[in-house]
Amino acid sequence: MFEARDLSSPVEAVRNEYAPDVQVLDCARDFETLDPARAEDLGLVVDRLEPASYPADWLPADAPTLLARYAGSDLTIGMPGDGSVVWTRQTEPPIVLVKARVEGSPEAFVDFLIAEALVELDCEVPEHFLGFFEDEYLALDAATDLDPNDTYQVAAALFDGWVGLQTREVFADWTDDHPELFDAWQDAGDRLEDRVSGISRAVARGETDFADATELACAAIKHGLELPAPFAALDTSAYRDHGPGYAVKWAEKTFDSLAE
């Protein structure tokens, strides 16, 4: 199921610089969430497993089943929305997992995703939005007029945007030291630009729902793209500094505005 990945020279250089103790593994099968039994197979390739858990009272009663399971004591790695490359500190040493779905993707883009995971590990951000929001996830749930799955998507997006505020200065500074990865980061941003500029109009016309729009806007934050209202308020030092409390206030104001 898991096999050490041969890293390109640019990615190996990033690992040596930012996360030299991290193992990068290819996964033979694709997944959204590794069930506990399969996740524990990692015990064969790491020194130790340290499952994370979160208090049940951080979750609303109607939280998605997968989120409730993730909060429990079983070893669970990866969640819906995590993308093609995931990382975890629930193992010793920490690991980056490259999902089978990356097959056929441009090599430069996959290299950037792995490098991004290594930088996030170095930044010591939480592994999942539940570790970011903690009990304020209840306040976020109360602030939105969304079903549990859409609230989950918005929370994951807001967390992704906050992480992007931590990492994008690193990527922007790679022009000389890691030029191939800088180019891949910039290219990924260029591909988002046209879609991002029209998201507010798309939501107003009913062509895009709010959760999808938030996911797109927050993905753009890591590339420093200009965002339309109300998402521009997330690309601020205030959000970087105040995190979950700011995100909840943003959601409250945004949904109050949408209701008018």
Question: Which features characterize this protein?
Answer:
DUF7089; 260 residues
Task: Summarize, please.
InterPro entries: DUF7089 (IPR055515). With 260 residues, this protein is of the alpha+beta class.
Number of strands: 6
**Spatial order of the strands in the main sheet?**
1-2-6-4
Structure annotation, total helices = 11
Helix and strand run: EHEHEHEEEHHHHHHHH
Largest sheet: 4 strands, mixed
Mean pLDDT: 94
Termini, distance in Å? 51 Å
How big is the Rg? 18 Å
Protein structure class? alpha+beta
Helix amount: 40-55%
Kindly estimate the percentage of residues that lie in beta strands according to DSSP. Answer: 5-15%
- Poorly predicted runs of 5 or more residues: none
Question: Domains counted in the coordinates: how many?
Answer: 1
Form type = globular
Word description of this protein:
This protein has 260 residues and is an alpha+beta fold. The protein has one domain (2-259). It has eleven helices and six strands. The protein has helices at residues 9-18, 36-39, 65-71, 107-123, 129-133, 136-143, 148-172, 179-197, 199-204, 210-221, 237-259; strands at residues 2-4, 23-27, 48-49, 85-88, 91-92, 95-98. The strands form two sheets. It has a four-stranded mixed beta sheet with strand order 1-2-6-4, covered by helices on one side. Helix 6 (136-143) packs parallel to helix 11 (237-259), helix 7 runs antiparallel to helix 11 and helix 8 (179-197) packs antiparallel against helix 10 (210-221). The radius of gyration is 18 Å and the shape is globular. 39% of the residues are buried. The model has no long low-confidence stretch (mean pLDDT 94).
